[in-house]
């Protein structure tokens, strides 16, 4: 068993069907039986046994639940007349009406998971308990600013003062996150996520190691032997799953450290860590009186609620002996997940709340549409239903049968939807580095909620129409059925639903079209070709040489080490065949590190205004040359522009075209101007720097601009002044083949340096492309759903209308009525709904784009794309109208082909 | 006298607990029942029946210590309450014997 409670999903689902107080014990029984008995069976038999458990649990609860505890009993079901025959009939209806089945499964199969997804995502990430034994009792402890109410990390001193004074916690632990550098026996240095963690953390989680031991209080004593506990993933991927790993030695930060234990799979406290060192108190930690920021968490004492813990924390308080900090922060208990993600407040909380509700609205619309389709199907059977009623079937019996038919459809749709959701999560989540307690997968809770929504959809879409369909007296229905469809009428609600769906279809399709146009226009704005296939991009770090990490190393020493590494690596790169040029920077090309404010000399802002947003990046003189980029005006950096010392302010700066566009400045005229940069919240008092050149927008050139690109200012980087570092190397063909060589060169230059990601420039992660694809995909999906549903509903309603008015149409044809007038009579209502929906959907966007003021804010290709909205809107409307008309066409043609004799014979 | 007669599965599980020494938990009960009757019963079903029998006063339960093979979860042991359970089983046996009486020849050897 792992820390993540990896009992098979079906066993977890099975116990969720049982009373809450029985779940833990039954899960234990099932796990024991599974591992000791079932585990010896062949694979297929094991799978079959697993699949039977949820049904067995449900049946057991129904039959043997204590009074008042059970769900609806089979006896009650049989009283309502629900039987296996109803299920058989329901399954038969699926096959008999394949297109209807397809449309309903599509609508609900997308609608149900989509309505659950936001809530599930928010639940999985926020307010989530870690997957430990009684994990809901493990909470985070954070600082809360008394003035702003904002969450702040606690310090090591806070942890030490709190842990002995709290009675609402059974135990308290802390972790100081730190990336560590591990040097293997062959001298290779690799980074790993680690933490200095208190020994109490291991006992608090109740997760024992699978090998060796966890950290103990004795390990925390300063001067004790250097020990480390490793995670299961690290043991498997970096240590080759060695059986003799306990007792072996790793060089962490250059210090020999003994491995004393291995934690089980899934354990990554407090978030994603894989190496755990003892948390030790050092005098240097308290240079500012507070110590470094740490994650603090605790297990509540038995019977204590989070509210009680919060009250105690507020009363006990934090003791900080720093004059400026006394009383500024108080301690608070939060969900464990809030330690890393925080608790949304204000606008974000409101947005998340709305985001959970919107898909439910879509589900309601889908259910309404499904109700229309099913009602139309039921209307076709009105004669059959009336006959059954006349033969003695009660209304409840017929309604129950119709409900079961709908339920079968809804459950099929739910299953398809959950399967789709599972496949999407399986495909997407490996790309995200999520904290260990986040489980985006389809959990038993999600399955149960989806089943609940499926049943609710079946009630809404099945029972209500069934009650309507069985409302008339059998005699009247039989008489009416002879000439039509039992006197059914679809009311205003139906019409409104059609209009809403058509409008949504137009709106979503237009948005999808414009999104595609605008992103394509942004891509076209690439004004320069970069030699993306020749350039290698590598990230690297130089960790502290002190065991305590960065907090044990003085700034000057650190800068000198980084500069020394750069120099040593540069010498080796210069001697390496195939290397044409290289340069260091603080960010990948197209990226930047710091969001700040920039003012240009002579601008019209008030003197104390810090300026417009600008992102800065520090680069070496050869940076743009390595990328093959020439400046549009002026020049790039030269050696003389680089500050002599790391802390010295630069006097030269480069800006990109987006920076000047935002300020309305001419590219050529900008060279020679001066500008100053300040940090957010600070007054604009930084030194003036001369703009020596204008460079293209690298973000757009790499296709990474999400919207309009980012205004950038580039500053010359002195050796040792940037960390972590990015290295760009111009190599020629297949730059990724150079990665192992680079690793060796870096290890030679500085054995402690850590090499991170190494990719070719054209393989950089492209968030912009992801955003574009996601946005376009979502909009296309929404428009597809809306159009399919509205088309299906129009077809169903038109068919129903033609069938209901068969006699009337026959009479009109017999009396020589013109086809156009007959069509108008048949289709008037549906065509009106179609037109109104299109007008409303198109009208909304027309008003929105007109309000943009003629899209004057957008320049260049993007402006052209935005100004093409009338064309895109017209095409969208035409598509939706054509789709709607085609849905109506077949029933209309059917109506025109009615032979008067047969139509009149129906009445006789 | 118990409130109502034992159901078939309730009777079989109560007898199985007796066969296992008068005290057991869901997993060996399900296993033993499957061995004797060729009827595979899920531990979840066995647990719910045991719990139901406890509710009827025929068994009492106690919680054992957590075990690693169960993911650290405890077992719930059920013990037969002779004063309640044995009369119920006797009644059930007598009813079955009365029904079987005279039919042995018809059924033949097992």
Question: What's the gist of this structure?
Answer:
The complex is a heterodimer of chains A (908) and B (110). With 908 residues, chain A is of the alpha+beta class.
* Strand-pairing-aware structural class of chain A: alpha+beta
Number of strands of chain B: 3
Q: Beta fraction of the residues of chain A?
A: 15-25%
Helix content of chain B: 40-55%
C-alpha Rg of chain A (nearest Å): 34 Å
**Main interface: chain pair and counts:** A-B, 33 and 27 residues
The stretches of 5 or more residues of chain A where confidence is low (pLDDT under 50) are 1-5, 68-79, 547-552
Q: What's the count of strands of chain A? A: 23
Largest sheet, strands/sense/barrel of chain A: 6 strands, mixed, barrel
Report on this model:
The complex is a heterodimer of chains A (908) and B (110). Chain A folds into 5 domains: 1-71, no CATH class; 72-126 and 348-478, no CATH class; 135-343, no CATH class; 489-524 and 768-907, no CATH class; 535-767, no CATH class. Helices cover 49% and strands 15% of the residues of chain A. Chain A is built from 29 helices and 23 strands. In chain A, the strands form 3 sheets. Chain A has a 6-stranded mixed beta barrel. In chain A, strands 15-16-21-18-20-19 form a 6-stranded mixed barrel. In chain A, strands 14-22-13-23 form a 4-stranded antiparallel sheet. In chain A, a hairpin with a 5-residue loop joins strand 1 and strand 2. Chain A is globular and about 100 Å long. Chain A starts with 8 loop residues before the first helix and ends with a helix. Residues 1-5, 68-79 and 547-552 of chain A have low confidence and may be disordered. A 3-stranded antiparallel sheet of chain B has the order 1-3-2. Chain B has a single domain (8-99), classed as Arc Repressor Mutant, subunit A, CATH 1.10.10.10. Chain B is 55% helix and 17% strand. With 110 residues, chain B is an alpha+beta fold. Chain B contains 5 helices and 3 strands; from the N terminus they run αβααββαα. At the A-B interface, helix 2 and helix 3 of A face helix 2, helix 3 and strand 3 of B.
């Amino acid at each position: 068993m792992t820390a993540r409670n990896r009992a098979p999903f079906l066993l977890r689902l099975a116990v969720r069907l049982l009373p809450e107080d029985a779940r833990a014990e039954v899960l234990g029984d099932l796990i024991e039986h599974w591992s000791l008995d079932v585990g010896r069976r062949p694979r297929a038999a094991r799978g079959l046994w697993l699949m039977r458990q949820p049904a067995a649990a449900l049946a057991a609860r129904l039959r043997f639940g204590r009074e008042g505890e059970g769900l609806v009993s089979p006896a009650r079901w049989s009283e309502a007349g629900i039987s296996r025959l109803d299920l058989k009939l329901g399954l038969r209806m699926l096959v008999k009406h394949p297109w209807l089945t397809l449309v309903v499964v599509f609508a609900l199969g997308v609608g149900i998971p989509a309505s659950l997804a936001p809530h599930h995502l928010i639940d999985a990430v926020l307010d989530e308990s870690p997957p430990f034994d009684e994990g809901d009792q493990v909470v985070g402890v954070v600082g809360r600013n008394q003035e702003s109410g904002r969450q702040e990390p606690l310090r090591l001193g806070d942890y030490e003062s709190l842990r002995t004074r709290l009675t609402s916690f059974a135990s308290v632990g802390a972790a100081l996150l730190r990336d560590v550098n591990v040097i293997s026996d062959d001298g290779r240095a690799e980074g790993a996520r680690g933490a200095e963690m208190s020994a109490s953390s291991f006992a608090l989680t109740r997760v024992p190691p699978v090998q060796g031991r966890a950290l103990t209080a004795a390990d925390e004593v300063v001067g004790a032997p250097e020990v480390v506990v490793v995670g299961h993933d690290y043991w498997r991927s970096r240590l080759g799953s060695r059986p003799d790993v306990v007792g072996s030695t790793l060089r962490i930060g250059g210090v020999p450290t003994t491995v004393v234990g291995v934690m089980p799979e899934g354990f990554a406290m407090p978030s994603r860590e894989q190496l755990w060192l003892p948390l030790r108190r050092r005098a240097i930690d308290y240079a500012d009186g507070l110590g470094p920021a740490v994650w603090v968490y605790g297990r509540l004492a038995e019977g204590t609620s989070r509210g009680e813990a919060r009250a105690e924390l507020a009363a006990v308080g934090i003791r900080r002996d720093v004059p400026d900090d006394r009383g500024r922060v108080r301690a608070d208990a939060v969900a464990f997940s809030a330690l890393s993600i925080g608790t949304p407040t204000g606008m974000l909380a409101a947005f998340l709340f709305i985001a959970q509700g919107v898909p439910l609205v879509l589900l309601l619309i889908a259910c309404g549409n499904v109700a229309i389709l099913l009602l139309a199907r039921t209307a076709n059977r009105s004669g059959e239903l009336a006959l059954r009623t006349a033969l003695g079937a009660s209304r409840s019996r017929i309604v129950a049968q119709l409900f079961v038919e709908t339920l079968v459809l809804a459950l099929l749709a739910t299953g398809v939807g959950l399967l789709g959701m599972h496949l999407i999560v399986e495909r997407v989540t490996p790309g995200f580095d999520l904290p260990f307690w986040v489980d985006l997968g389809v959990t038993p809770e999600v399955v149960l909620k989806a089943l609940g929504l499926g049943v609710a959809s079946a009630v809404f879409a099945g029972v209500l129409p069934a009650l309507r369909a069985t409302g008339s007296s059998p005699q009247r229905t039989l008489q009416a059925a002879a000439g039509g469809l039992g006197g059914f009428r679809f009311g205003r609600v139906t019409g409104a639903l059609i209009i809403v769906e058509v409008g949504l279809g137009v709106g979503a399709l237009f948005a999808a079209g414009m999104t595609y146009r605008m992103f394509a226009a942004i891509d076209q704005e690439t004004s320069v070709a970069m030699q993306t296939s020749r350039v290698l991009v590598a990230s690297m770090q130089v960790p502290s040489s002190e065991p305590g990490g960065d907090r044990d190393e003085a700034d000057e020493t650190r800068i000198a080490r980084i500069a020394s590494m750069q120099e040593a690596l540069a010498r080796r790169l210069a001697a390496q065949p195939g290397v044409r040029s290289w340069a260091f920077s603080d960010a990948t090309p197209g990226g930047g590190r710091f969001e700040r404010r920039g003012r240009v000399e002579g601008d019209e802002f008030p003197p104390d205004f810090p300026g417009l947003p600008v992102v800065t990046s520090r680069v070496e003189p050869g940076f743009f040359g390595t990328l093959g980029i020439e400046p549009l005006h002026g020049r790039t950096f030269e050696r003389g522009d680089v500050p002599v010392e790391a802390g010295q302010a630069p006097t030269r700066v480069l800006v990109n075209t987006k920076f000047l566009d935002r300020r309305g400045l001419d590219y050529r005229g900008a060279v020679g101007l001066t500008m100053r940069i300040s940090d957010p919240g600070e007054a604009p008092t930084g030194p003036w720097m001369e703009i020596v050149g204008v460079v293209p927008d690298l973000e757009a050139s790499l296709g990474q601009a999400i919207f309009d690109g980012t205004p950038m200012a580039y500053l010359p980087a002195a050796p040792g002044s940037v960390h972590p570092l990015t290295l760009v190397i111009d190599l020629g063909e297949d730059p990724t083949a150079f990665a192992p060589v680079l690793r060796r060169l870096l290890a030679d230059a500085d054995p402690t340096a850590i090499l991170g990601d190494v990719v070719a420039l054209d393989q950089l992660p492209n968030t912009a492309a992801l955003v574009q694809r996601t946005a376009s995909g979502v909009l296309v999906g929404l428009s597809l759903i809306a159009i399919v549903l509205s088309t299906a509903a129009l077809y169903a309603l038109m068919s129903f209308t033609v069938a209901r008015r068969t006699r009337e149409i026959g009479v009109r044809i017999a009396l020589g009525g013109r086809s156009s007038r007959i069509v108008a009579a048949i289709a008037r209502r549906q065509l009106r709904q179609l037109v109104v929906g299109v007008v409303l959907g198109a009208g909304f966007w027309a008003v929105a784009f007109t309000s943009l003021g003629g899209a004057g804010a957008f320049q260049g290709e993007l402006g052209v794309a935005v100004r093409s909205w009338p064309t895109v809107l017209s095409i969208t409307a035409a598509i939706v109208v054509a789709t709607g008309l085609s849905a109506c066409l077949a029933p209309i043609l059917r109506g025109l082909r009615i032979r008067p004799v047969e139509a009149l014979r129906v009445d006789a | 006298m118990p409130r109502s007669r034992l159901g078939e599965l309730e009777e079989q599980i109560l007898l199985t607990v007796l066969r296992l020494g008068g005290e057991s938990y869901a997993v060996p009960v399900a296993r033993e029942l499957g061995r004797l009757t060729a009827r595979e019963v899920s531990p979840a079903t066995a647990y719910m029946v045991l719990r139901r029998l406890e509710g009827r006063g025929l068994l009492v339960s106690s919680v054992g210590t957590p075990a690693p093979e169960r993911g650290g979860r405890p077992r719930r042991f059920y013990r037969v309450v002779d004063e309640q359970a044995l009369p119920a089983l006797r009644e059930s046996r007598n009813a079955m014997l009365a029904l079987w009486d005279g039919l042995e020849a018809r059924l033949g050897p097992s």
